[in-house]
């Protein structure tokens, strides 16, 4: 039997280069390998800290799915679905909640971190405390062996593994397998201000940006502070602009830029112009596809609805097994 991989993203907004190159490209790469693939919009997870924005959820989900499709996620190769359209996620979450020790939840590092970052008003709810339980349900529903995620999600995966062991022991049957994170090398993508690229820092370049937006953003991007004047030599490897060149510019040109930066024969203005042009050239096909898809939101919705139907078949089977294990009966 083929192994399954599964991953999800919260629909909190449009995807920026950090999300695209940090996560989505890995998902897409896995389409070339011999796995069953499940990729989903984690809309209930977005509610745990973003209930105030619930009215934007549908639009955000469509835009995120359009970004995925525009970049090359294919419904023929991957089951692309929406968490809230597969109600079994809620049922499994509820059953798992019955055996989850509260202490384990309070110990998950992101619980305290997020609480400190987002404040009490967004995080003192029962759903937020249960975030890792819902995430576990998402993963084990499809018996995923591997979960392609970033480092920030590893503690959640560890939680899931512990919960799987606890569940299997409690019911006396190995219903679930322990999923492993699939950490792939993620290029370092710095934002316009030199910090990590992030929506909340307001320093990101989006697939949805126009070519002009991209140019003006790159123009004011933070570069090597050693280069106050054009005649000051710089160190490309320590410059956020060059980090992006490494992704969007071919190797020969990159070495040339590195050299010209270190002997101050190229200025930041020119270097950035080249970068903006290369980003725009690289993203152009995906940007066009995205714009096209967003004129046909029904088409995108249908992909998600059909994907959710496929996911539901697997999910129903799993719940039958779970009910069998818990109640010795899967009928009720
Ligand atoms: N917690 C993940 C994030 O913030 C989103 C997510 C929800 C997820 N359920 C998942 C990721 C299951 C992988 C598997 O990015």
Explain briefly what this protein structure is.
By secondary structure, the chain is mainly alpha-helical.
Describe the structure.
- The chain has 332 residues and is mainly alpha-helical.
- The protein has 2 domains: 3-189 and 296-327, HUPs (Rossmann fold), CATH 3.40.50.620; 211-291, Tyrosyl-Transfer RNA Synthetase (Orthogonal Bundle), CATH 1.10.240.10.
- Helix content is 56%, strand content 6%.
- The chain has 15 helices and 5 strands.
- Strands 1-2-3 form a 3-stranded parallel β-sheet.
- Strand 1 (4-9), helix 1 (17-29) and strand 2 (36-41) form a beta-alpha-beta unit.
- Helix 12 crosses helix 14.
- The radius of gyration is 22 Å and the shape is elongated.
- It binds tryptophan.
Q: What keywords describe this structure?
A:
Tyrosyl-Transfer RNA Synthetase, Rossmann fold, binds tryptophan, single chain, mainly alpha, 2 domains, 332 residues, 6% strand, 3-stranded parallel beta sheet
What's the Cα radius of gyration? 22 Å
CATH architecture of the largest domain: 3-Layer(aba) Sandwich
Biggest sheet architecture: 3 strands, parallel
* Order of H and E elements: EHEHHEHHHHHHEHEHHHHH
Structural class determined from secondary elements: mainly alpha
Strand order of the largest sheet: 1-2-3
Mean pLDDT comes to 95
Can you tell me the overall shape? elongated
The CATH superfamily title of the largest domain: HUPs
Helix content: 55-70%
Supply the number of structural domains.
2
Count of runs of 4 or more consecutive helical residues:
15
Which compounds are bound in this model? Answer: tryptophan
At the fold tier of CATH, the topology name of the largest domain is Rossmann fold
Task: Show unreliable segments.
Answer: none
């Amino acid at each position: 039997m083929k192994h399954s991989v599964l991953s999800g993203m919260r629909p909190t907004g449009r995807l920026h280069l950090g999300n695209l190159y940090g996560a989505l490209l890995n998902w897409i790469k896995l389409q070339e390998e011999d796995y069953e693939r499940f990729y989903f919009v984690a809309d209930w997870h977005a509610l745990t800290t973003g209930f105030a924005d619930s009215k934007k959820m549908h639009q955000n989900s469509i835009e995120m799915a359009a970004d995925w499709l525009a970049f090359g996620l294919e419904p023929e190769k991957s089951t692309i679905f929406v968490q809230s359209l597969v109600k079994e996620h809620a049922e499994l979450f509820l059953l798992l909640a019955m055996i989850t020790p509260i202490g384990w939840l309070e110990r998950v590092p992101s619980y305290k971190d997020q609480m400190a970052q987002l404040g009490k008003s967004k995080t003192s709810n029962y759903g937020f405390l249960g975030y890792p339980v819902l995430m576990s349900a998402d993963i084990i529903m499809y018996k995923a062996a591997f979960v392609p995620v970033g480092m920030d999600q590893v503690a959640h995966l560890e939680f899931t593994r512990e919960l799987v062991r606890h569940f299997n022991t409690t019911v006396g049957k190995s219903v679930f397998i322990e999923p492993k994170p699939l950490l792939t090398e993620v290029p370092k993508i710095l934002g316009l201000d030199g910090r990590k690229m992030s929506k909340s820092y307001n320093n990101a370049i989006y697939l949805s940006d126009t070519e002009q937006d991209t140019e003006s953003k790159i123009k004011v991007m933070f570069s090597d502070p050693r280069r106050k004047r054009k005649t000051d030599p710089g160190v490309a490897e320590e410059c956020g602009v060059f980090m992006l060149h490494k992704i969007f510019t071919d190797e020969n040109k990159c070495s040339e830029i590195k050299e010209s930066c270190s002997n101050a024969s190229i200025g930041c203005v020119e270097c950035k112009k080249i970068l903006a042009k290369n980003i725009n050239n690289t993203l152009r096909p995906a940007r066009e596809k995205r714009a096209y898809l967003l004129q046909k939101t029904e088409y995108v919705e249908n992909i998600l609805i059909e994907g959710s139907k496929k996911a539901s078949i697997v999910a129903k089977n799993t719940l039958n097994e779970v009910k069998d294990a818990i109640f010795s009966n899967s009928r009720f």
